């Protein structure tokens, strides 16, 4: 699963300490070529995640359980560009208005966040 499979939830889980439903996007692609297409695919994937949250799609898996928060996270294999950073920060503000937190990080092969 990855960013290019826009209709699939890559991973979903609960952060128990905050009772937050976390939806993860895995992005294994470089930013060196076709940045616009990369950002467009990410936008489509994030929009799908928002629809999933707002429509209560998670209830199929978690039933009537309520959550104190929702978060979309992206884990990148490669460092994103300055332009991408600007887009992510704008998206972060828009998601916050909908009650959804947004995080993103570059994760190296040892799963350490940079």
Description:
It is a single chain. With about 110 residues, the chain is of the alpha/beta class. It has one domain. It is built from three helices and four strands; from the N terminus they run ββααβαβ. Strand 3, helix 3 and strand 4 form a beta-alpha-beta unit. The protein starts with 10 loop residues before the first strand and ends in an 8-residue tail after the last strand.
Short description:
35% of the residues lie in helices and 25% in strands. The protein has one domain.
Question: For the CA atoms, what is the radius of gyration?
Answer: 14 Å
Overall geometric form: globular
* Number of H/I helices: 3
Helix content: 25-40%
Major sheet, described briefly?
A: 4 strands, mixed
Number of domains: 1
Q: What is the mean predicted local confidence, pLDDT?
A: 91
List keywords for this structure.
114 residues; 35% helix; globular; 4-stranded mixed beta sheet; alpha/beta; 25% strand
Write the layout of secondary structure elements.
Elements: E1 11-15, E2 20-27, H1 35-54, H2 59-62, E3 69-76, H3 82-97, E4 100-106
């Amino acid at each position: 699963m990855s960013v290019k499979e826009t209709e699939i939830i890559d991973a979903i889980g609960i952060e128990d300490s905050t009772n937050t439903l976390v939806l993860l996007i895995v992005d294994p692609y470089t930013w060196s070529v076709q940045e616009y297409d990369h950002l467009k695919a990410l936008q489509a994937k994030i929009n799908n995640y928002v629809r999933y949250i707002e429509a209560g799609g998670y209830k199929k898996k978690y039933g009537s359980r309520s959550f104190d928060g929702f978060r979309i996270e992206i884990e990148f294999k490669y460092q994103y560009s300055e332009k991408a950073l600007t887009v992510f920060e704008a998206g972060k503000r828009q998601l916050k208005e909908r009650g959804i937190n947004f995080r993103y990080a570059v994760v190296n092969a040892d799963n350490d966040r940079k």
